[in-house]
Predict the structure.
Amino acid sequence: MTARQHFDRQFAHDNLREIFKERIAHTATTGKDGVSPDAFEGMIDTELSLALTKVRSGTYRFTTYRQKLVLKGAGKVACLLKSGPP
């Protein structure tokens, strides 16, 4: 499989929709724009089409996200979790 084929498979509309269902749809977090997963799901086709057009043209810009430091207790290693936009 070429890099282009792998890219096209990963950024296929159906694959991105499936990733949303598996990893985001059930969460209570909101995006940097304040849109909840439920609201986004109602406009997912439009948003994915727009994002894919920008990705393919090279004009898509990823938004930043907030990292959260989780302390595990005395003598334990802390870890960083991606928790959402700043």
Remarks:
- DSSP finds four helices and two strands in the chain.
- Residues 38 and 69 are 27 Å apart (CA to CA).
